[in-house]
Each structure stands twice: as C-alpha cells, then as structure tokens.
Write a structure and sequence with these properties.
The chain is an all-alpha fold. 77% of the residues lie in helices and 0% in strands. Belongs to the inorganic carbon transporter (TC 9.A.2) DabB family.
C-alpha cells in the first residue's frame, strides 16, 4: 500500500535545493527587514511558502499535491502584497491570482482524469501504470492540461506579465519566486514525465509555446535597462528552455538546468545592488565591443571543440542540445578574441581550457543525475530540429540587434521587443475588468503614456 508522502532520490535532491535556497533567503530577509515593523509577518509568510513547497515535493497523493500547490500560490500572494499600497504590486498580484486559479482548475481536472483512468490517487502508482500501459484518451487529455499548467506556472508568453511586474515586491520575494517557485512547473512535469512523454500533443504544445517564449523573452531581455526587469525576462526565457528540454525528453539536462538557474537567480536578485555597481564600473572602464569577425572566430573554435567532444564522448544526445551548448561556448570565448593585445593568445587558450572544464563538469553532472531522473524517452527528431532552428534564430537575431540596429526591419523588431511585444496587454485589460481598482486604473493610464518598460 502506497503512503501519502514519498521520498525518492530525485525528491531528496529537490528538498536539498529548497533547504539551501530557503535558508539563504530567510537569513537575507531577517537582516534586510531589521527596521521593518512588519518583519514578523513577512518571515511567517516566507516560512509558510517554503513549507508548502516542501509539501508539494513530498506529496504522493493527488489531493494533497493539489492542496499544497494551491497553498503555495496563496502564501506567495501575501508576500507579493507585503506593501499593499503599491499599485504595481497590486497589478502583479491580481494577475498572478487570476492565472493561478485558472491553472489550479486545470490541474484539478487533470488529476480527476488520472484518477478515473488508473483508479488510484497515489502518484507513484499512476506513474508506474502509465509507463506500462497504452495511453487512453483521458490520459492524453490530462497530459495536455499538465503542460498548460506548467506553461502558466513558468510564466510563459503571453501569461508572463505578472512575473515581470512582481519585481515591485521586496527583493527576497523576487529571489524566492525566480529561484524556486517558478520552477514548480518543471518539477510537476518531471514527476509526471511518463504521462507527458506518451502524449505527442502535449510534448508539441510545450515545444512550440515554450520554444517561442524562450526566443522572444530572451530577445526582450536584451532591450531592458532595469537590472531586475532584465532578470525577470531572463527567467521567463530560461523556464521556457527548461520546459523544452523536458518536452524533448532530456530530463537530466532539464534537472541540471533547474539547479543551475535556481542558484544563479537567487544570487543575482540578492546581489542586485552590487550588480548595478559592477555594470556601472564596466561602463566607466570602456569595455570594447566585439566585432562580427570575433564572433566568427569564437564560433569556429567552439564548433571544433564541440565536434571533438561529440566524436570522442558523444556527450550531447540531440541537435538542439548541441546548438545550445555551442552558442553558450561561443559567448564564453568571444571576449578573449576581442582585445588585440599581446595577451590575446594566452587569453584564448585559457578561455578554451575553461570551456573544456565546463564541458567536463556538465558531462560528469549529467552522468550522475541520470541515476536520479527517469530514463529519457525516444527523441522526436522533428521537434529536436525545430528547437535547434529556434536556437539558431535567437543567436542570429541577437547579433542583428547589436550590429544592424538602424536597418528598417531590425529597428521595427527592436521597437516591438522594447514594448514587450505588447503581449501583456490582454492580461492587463482582463485583470482591470475582473478586479477593478482605482489605483490600478491610474497606474495603467500612467504606464501607457510614460513607461513602456512594464507593458
């Protein structure tokens, strides 16, 4: 007989992540709110949110999982509205609240379908039976609903506006959200991965919507000036990338991505003040911008390194993964080609050595994570090719925005990206209609005329 809670190696890893991030954010909050009269209320809400996340990760019963999922959202709502008089915080909280209720309704419908099909409320039994049985129509329906819930939870376009505007909340809230809670969509899909893998409709839904969100959000982040807003758009892009990896069945890569992104975003938000100082220092130092030929050289060297690594060790299982790591290596190498001085060659070899070390670290981590994640399903070559094409598109467009900003098409693209693609307008209008507030309406009118950054 199954228990209400389950502890597996994968869940232990996730609990360790929650413990590290939770302790760090709690310690930061205790110091940052030392002068706040409501510090006790904030700490209580923070602890409640972390506790409900732990409950989600350990739950083995559909009802407990769903109840904990709802409690995470409700406790987070209290944190976002810690300063309830701020109109932008109200707008973000209201958008998040409405989208959360929609996703929770879909999650309940998915769980009911799974319960009816497998006649058990225990998640481990459902996953086990799903791995050994032919998928029924109701299970495909549940898989599509789970994919939609993950897209909403991970703030994928066009349901991303709340994540961008939630930077109005205190910094520890942003760190908790971007480093932890937003990952729950990916965790949900990892827990129910056999059901997702058996539904081609659900996988293609993730590949297309999350893939496009990755590209658009990644390009929009390059147009942002505010450090926190840039990080928020980056989170939407990175979450889309994680969902794409799960949809392709690259579970170890997705899990590694989840951990790396969590630590990076927690550090970035909690250290955002110093990030501004470093940015200003780099501007004052007059850092040299790489030329197109430097990008070509870096891409050529990266291609040779990747070809050797694939030939000798076959470290990457898909074309999309190869393209992703190739462009990441290119971005790592290009600064060493930029400065034409006597130290250029040593810098290039030093950076190449660092790149080899990162590839080795990635391969080692991926090998060890294979023991914690589920076996990868058969790769869909069409989906893999489509995602690789999206990565190439992102790389080319990002260079075009840097080097041909005055070309008519690129200028129009920049204007569209600078306005966030106008993709959040529907959510703002719907929120103001369903949850009207005088302060929000005044904020909206002010935004429309003066501040396209938060559109």
């Amino acid at each position: 007989m199954s228990s209400l809670f389950l502890v597996t190696p994968l869940r232990i890893m996730l609990l360790s992540l929650v413990a590290i991030l939770g302790f760090t954010i709690l310690r930061y909050s205790w110091v940052a709110f030392s002068g706040e009269k409501d510090r006790r209320r904030f700490i209580q809400s923070l602890l409640l949110t972390i506790a409900t996340v732990v409950l989600v990760i350990t739950a083995n019963h559909l009802a407990i999982f769903w109840a904990a999922w709802v409690c995470v959202s409700l406790s987070l709502h209290r944190l976002i509205l810690f300063y309830p008089d701020r109109p932008r915080a109200q707008l973000a909280a209201h958008k998040k609240f409405l989208l959360a209720r929609l996703s929770e309704t879909m999650l309940a419908a998915a769980f009911i379908s799974l319960y009816v099909q497998f006649d058990t409320p225990y998640i481990n039994q459902i996953v086990s039976q799903a791995s050994d049985s032919t998928m029924h129509l109701s299970v495909n329906f549940a898989a599509v609903l789970l994919a939609l819930v993950a897209l909403i939870k991970c703030a994928q376009l066009p349901m991303h506006g709340w994540l961008i505007q939630v930077v109005e909340a205190p910094t520890p809230v942003s760190a908790l959200l971007h480093a932890g809670i937003v990952n729950l969509g990916g965790i949900l899909l990892l827990f129910f991965s056999p059901i997702l893998a058996a539904s081609s409709v659900a996988c293609w839904l993730l590949v297309v919507l999350a893939g496009i969100s990755t590209i658009v959000a990644g390009l929009v982040s390059t147009t942002r000036i505010s450090i926190k807003v840039k990080l928020a758009w980056s989170t939407s892009s990175q979450m889309g990338l994680m969902l794409v990896e799960i949809a392709l069945g690259l579970y170890e890569m997705a899990l590694l991505h989840l951990f790396a992104h969590s630590f990076y975003k927690a550090y970035s938000f909690l250290n955002s003040g110093n990030t501004v100082n470093h940015y200003l220092a780099a501007k004052l130092a007059g850092s040299e911008k790489p030329k197109l030929q430097h990008w070509f050289y870096a891409l050529l060297v990266s291609s040779i390194m990747m070809a050797i690594a694939q030939w000798q060790f076959a470290i990457l299982p898909s074309l999309a993964a190869i393209a992703l790591v190739l462009f990441a290596l290119t971005g790592l190498l290009v600064p060493s080609f930029t400065h034409a001085d006597n130290g250029r060659v040593p810098k290039i070899f030093l950076t190449m050595g660092f790149g080899v070390a990162l590839l080795t670290l990635y391969t080692t981590a991926k090998h060890h994570l294979a023991a914690f994640a589920l076996p990868d399903p058969t790769l869909n070559l069409w989906a893999d090719g489509f995602v690789a094409f999206l990565f190439v598109t992102l790389f080319v467009l990002s260079l075009a925005l840097q080097y041909w900003p005055h070309a008519p098409l690129i200028k129009r693209l920049f204007i569209w990206l600078n306005a966030g693609g106008y993709l959040d307008e529907w959510a703002t209008r719907l929120t103001l209609k369903l949850w009207p507030s005088e302060s929000l309406i005044e904020l909206r009118q002010h935004q429309w005329h003066t501040n396209p950054e938060v559109k």
